[in-house]
Structures are given as structure tokens and as C-alpha cells.
Task: structure prediction
Amino acid sequence: MKEYTAYVNGLKAGNGEGNNGCCCSHEFREAVASCISKLTNSFNKIEQLLMTLSVL
Result:
């Protein structure tokens, strides 16, 4: 989550350019992408669970 927050802060500070510049390493950007992917998967699972529960 720290990586995601830092990325969003980078977007705000960089006027939309984000952390694509030389200030952030490739490893950092990979960590952010991984975090976003995990969050997306988690939210999808929660949504599926809620849909299942609403059918019951």
C-alpha cells in the first residue's frame, strides 16, 4: 500500500506525469504495479462475494 500511495503522490506532484521520470527506479514501478494488481484482484473477489451473498 505504501507503494500505491507514493505513486499517487507522484502523480499529484508531477502534474500528471507521475513517477515515470528518472526519480523512481524500475523496481519501484514494478512494486506499484504489483500492488495495484493485488488490490484489483482483492476488490474483484469482494465484489463476487457480495453478489453471491445478495442472491441468498
